[in-house]
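To: structure desk
From: M.T.
Subject: fold request, one chain
Message: Could you run this one when you get a chance? Sequence is below, nothing fancy, just the single chain.
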Amino acid sequence: MKYVVVGTAGHIDHGKSALVRALTGTDPDRLEEEKRRGITIDLGFAHLDLAEGVKVGFIDVPGHERFVKNMLAGVGGIDLVLLVIAADESVKPQTREHFDICRLLGIEKGVVVLTKSDLVEREILDLVRLEVQDFVKGSFLEGAPIVAVSSKTGEGLETLKAELGRLARELAARSEESHFRLPIDRVFVMKGFGVVVTGTMIAGKIEKEAEVEIFPLGRRVRVRGIEVHNAPAEVAVAGQRTALNLVGVEARELARGMVLAPPDLFQAAPRLDCALTLLPSARPLKNRARVHFHCGAAETLAEVVLLELKELKPGQRAYAQLRLADPGLYLPGDRFIIRQFSPVTTIGGGVVLDNEPSRHRTWDASVGAALRIMEQGDREARVELLAQQAGELSLAELVRRTGWLTSEAVRTAKALEERKQIMVLGQPPSLFVHSKHFQALSESVLHALEQFHSANPLDAGMTKEELRGRITPRSSEQPGMPSVALSNAVLQSLAALDRIETKGETVRLIGRQVQLGVEELRAKEQISRAFEAAELAVPSARDILTKLQIDRPRAEKILQILLKEKALLKVTEDLIFHRSALEKLRALLARHKGKEGRISVSKFKEMTGLSRKYAIPLLEYLDRERVTRREGEDRIIL
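Reply: Done. C-alpha cells follow.
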C-alpha cells in the first residue's frame, strides 16, 4: 500500500472543505466554530482509498489570512497539492500566498481544481482556465491538470480522482528505512485513553509500545496505542495520518510544533544554517531582521543573520543563519517558511543545510564554501566536510547531524576511508577522523615530546594523559583535547612507525634516554652511596637529598631514576633501601633457615639490630616478595 498526503491550498471560501467532503464523504471541519462560521479555522483531515493500492490522506487547510499559520502547520508534510480556485472568483490574495508557500516548500506535483464550476457559464470557466494557466506558468504546476468540479453536483470528481491516482502512482514511496519523525499538529485528551497527539508521519515507522522522545521537551514517553486514518493499527509508517496515545506526559506539557522521534538520537537545535530565498513580492530583508519561522508544524521567532549580504533583495537567494527563539528538531533537507515580523505576511523560505552550526560572527569565505558542500555535495563530500570541521566526528554526532541511519553513515565513512580521506576508528566503527587532522595530531605529538625532553632531561618521558592535553594541533580550529580513543590511535600509529615508544603510561621519542649532566651524575652517586652506607638503618630520603649541591626538584628526579633502575627499592613511602642491603638481608635469612625454618619479630630485630620502626616494614616487604610467609606471630622462611 502506498500512502500519499494531499493538501488543499487556496483562498477563503473557494470550496476547499466542500471538495474534500465530496471526495471522501468526511467533513474536515471538526470544530463547532468552523461549522457555525462556515470557514476552516484549523487543520482538517480525511482519507480516501484510491484504486491500485493507493491510500490518500487529505489535509484541509484554512484559507483566511488570519489562519495562514495554521495552514503552514499542515502543509509541510504533503506530497501533492490541490490548488483550489473558485471558478466564480478566480485567483485571489490567499491563492497567491498559499501557492508561494507550496513553491517555497519544494512541492513538486499537484492539480489545479476549479471549484464551483456549476455557478459559471462555459465561457467564464474557459477564461478562468486561461488565467490559471498564466498564473502557474514557470512553476511546478505548469502543465499540471486543471480539473473543473462541482462539489454540489459531483461533476468532475471522478476525473479529479483519476488524476490524483495517476500522480500518486508516479510519486516515489516514502522510505520506512529511516529514523521516524512525527511533527505534532494536534494534542487532546481522549476519555479512557489519555493523551493523544496527531500528525503526518514524515519519515520512518513507529510501533506500539515503542519508546519515543518529545522534542524540544526532552521527555521519553511510551506509545500505548496507534490509529492510522481513524482505525487501530500496530504500526504507523511514513506518509500516514497518525494518532498516538502517549503514556508518561500530560496534555498541558505538549503543544503543536513539537516532534516525536527516536530517543537519545537527536537534539533540539537553537540555530540553523540554511539557503534562504526571498519572494519577488517581498520587501528587502535586512541583516538581523526578525521573522516568523515555520517548519513542519512548528512556529517560532527567528533572527536572520545574512552570511553573504547586508540585505537580501526581493527574488534573491543567499546563505543565512537563523537564530531561533525556541529550539526545535530540524534536520538537513527540511523545508521552512519565513513570514514578515509585522505585518505578518509570507516573504520567503528555504532549506536547512546544517542543524548544528557554530555561531557565525562575520562573513568568512570558508563558511560559504562549506554551505555549498552541505547543499550541493554528495554524501561522501558532506561527511568529509563534517569530519574536517570537527577534526574527529563520533558516529552518534554524524547521525544526529544528517538524520541518516547508522548503517548508511558507516557505509559512507568506509568509502572515504578507502580513499584515505578519513580514518575510521573503533570496532564496531564509532569515530571518524579526518586524515589531515590525524596527521596534524601526529606532528603535534612529536613536537610536544621534543619540547618535553629538552626541558626535562631527567624524565624518561611524558604520561599519556599529560601528552593528550598538549597535542591539540597549533593550526587546529577545534579547541580542547582529542578523545582518548583518537589519542591512543595516534600513539599506536607513531609507535608502528618507530617514531615513539611507550612503556606503561609513559611515552618518549624513540631512542631518547634520561640525560644526566656532571652535577646530576655526581648527585646520583652521592644518593646511592648514602643509602648503601646506611645499610638497613636508612635515614629519610629528605635528609639525604637536602645535603646535595643541586636543587630539590632535580634531586627528587634523580631519586626516582634510582628507583626505576632498582638500585634503590621503596619498601614504604618513608623507607627506601639500597638493593645491596636487601640482598644481604635475604642472605642472612637464608643462613638462618639452615638452622631454623622460622623466625619471630624479636629474633629478626636481634639478628639485624633494627628497631620495630624498620623491622615490621621489612618483614611485610619480605612477605610480599615471598621470602617469608606469616604464620601467627612468626614467619616461615621460604
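Reply (cont.): The CA atoms of residues 62 and 68 lie 7 Å apart. Let me know if you need anything else for the meeting.
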